[in-house]
Amino acid sequence: MAKNKIAAFLESIEPQERLKQLIDFSNLIEVDPHVPPTRYYRSGLEMVRMANVYYDEGNLEKAYCLYLKFMTLFLEKIRKHPDFSTVPSTMKAANQAKLREILPKAEKLKQRLLDIYKQDYDNYVKKLTQLAKEAEQRKRKSDEEKKEAQKPVPPKPEFVTAQIPGSIDGISYPDPNLTGSSVTLTPSAPEFPPSYDDENFLPSLPAFDRSKKPSGSGFDEKYDADTLRNVLVPSKVMTMFETLAQKNTNQNIETCGILAGKLEKNQLIITHMILPKQNGTPDSCTTTNEEEIFDYQDQHNLITIGWIHTHPTQTAFLSSVDLHTQCPYQLLMPEAIAIVCCPKYKSIGFFTLTPNYGLQYIANCRKSGFHPHPSEPALFKNADHIKIENTPLEVLDLRK
Predict the structure, then answer these.
(1) Quick one: which of 238, 400, 209 has its CA closest to 311?
(2) Domain membership flag for residue 159
(3) Element (H or E) spanning 23, and its range?
(4) Which position among 5, 128, 197, 304 has the lowest Cβ density within 10 Å, counted as fewest Cβ atoms?
(5) What is the mean pLDDT of residues 217-245?
(6) Tens digit of pLDDT for each residue in 320-341?
(7) Residues 6 or more apart whose Cβ sits within 8 Å of residue 350
(8) What domain range includes position 291?
(9) What is the pLDDT of residue 204?
(10) Which neighbouring-strand residues pair with 285?
(11) Higher local confidence (pLDDT), 33 or 166
């Protein structure tokens, strides 16, 4: 029912205005000066991969949104990053080539959406016109029935006993009033249809205030990027990761890995787990040679969906260092998850930064290493947008 209301609201918006709202929403992307610009360039490629999937699946609005975000990010916003000059020229060249590919595609998609919006709006106007016509017909019929019901009822006829003479021309006839029983006829009252109350009888027509968006639903709900997509996690991710990390765990050293996959039918599916070259301590882990990860993801058309690491001797939670590691992942993809495996306590945690507080708080925190953070309001929470299923998983261990 809610989806029907959203659809009805969107159809009521004039085509050009509807397209403008979509464009305005797509331009909201911002660049965090504390996230390395190369991360944005990597994320941009994944953004295009997701847009292409949406396009192939026929979800044209989401495809167009992502193409616009990509263009806004790299034609305008990224140049304001304080470290923009540090981006390798090869990365910039590849990005420019991708822009040249997307610009005409986005323009054609814009016209297709405008045609669709025009058809939606025309159908909406026709529907309202038909509803108004039917309501007018019902009102006219109701008025006629009321007038008919208000006509005066003709007086009831009076019946008298007929006096028949005893004889005519010398011939005698029996008096029916004496020898037969009299019959009284009572005419039935004319039947009239019931009258209708105009207020109850006429249907209410849908009304939309185009100057406002519905609270909690409508355009913002349909296009809100923070309405999280489900993340499908293969059940073997955790067991395989703990097995690969066992040697480090025995030495009280953390191990970390990257979770990557694909977008399919508006669901993010983890299909690959990559263990990069890394340096670990009892309470931290740092990846090295990240280009190896990027090359592998490019070759397999993979999207970064999150990361996984162990707490060899601690429980499942996100430390201050973990919070800062998670932040860039989640800034670039709201659904990004952090999985924490705790072999000693045989427990596993699936976490995200709280979107309404923790994400922005950590993004604004300039401290590094281990440092205290306030516990209230909560900076992270259990990820409730995950599904654990028995699906295939490929593992790449680059530490070897």
Answers:
(1) 238
(2) no
(3) helix 15-26
(4) 197
(5) 77
(6) 999 999 999 999 999 999 999 9
(7) 233, 337, 338, 339, 382, 383, 386
(8) 231-397
(9) 37
(10) 280
(11) 33
Place of tokens 């005419």: 187
Cα 185 to the center of its chain, rounded Å: 73
What is the band of 77 on the pLDDT scale with cuts at 50, 70, 90?
very high
Measured CA distances, 357 to 272, 362, 373, 375 (Å) = 30, 9, 13, 12
Cβ pair 72, 24 in contact under 8 A: no
Pair of tokens at residue 150: 């208000």
| CA 62/CA 51 separation, integer angstroms | 7
**pLDDT for position 165:** 52
Instruction: Say if residues 14 and 121 touch (Cβ distance below 8 Å).
Output: yes
Phi then psi dihedrals of residue 332, to 5 deg = -90, -25
Residues 246 and 368 in one domain: yes
In this prediction, residue 147 carries a pLDDT of 81
Pairing of strands 171-172, 167-168: antiparallel
What is the widest separation between alpha-carbon atoms in the chain? Answer: 144
- Shared domain check, 372 and 236: yes
Distance CA 245, CA 398 (A): 13
pLDDT given at position 65: 95
Residues 339, 350: Cα–Cα separation, whole Å: 5
Task: Mark out the alpha helices in 150-210 (DSSP H runs).
Answer: 176-179, 198-201
Domain boundary among 127, 160, 178: 127
User: Which pLDDT belongs to residue 210?
Assistant: 37
Nearest to 258 by CA among 246, 248, 239, 272: 272
Residues forming a β-bridge with 303: 261
* Alpha carbons 395 and 400: distance in angstroms, whole number: 13
CA–CA separation, 46 and 69 (whole Å): 12
- Mark which of 127, 162, 188 sits at the end of a domain: 127
Residues β-bridged to residue 387: 232
Structure tokens at 281: 């301590």
Report pLDDT digits (tens) over 241-292: 999 999 999 999 999 999 999 999 999 999 999 999 999 999 999 999 999 9
Query: Looking at residue 196, what is its pLDDT?
Result: 33
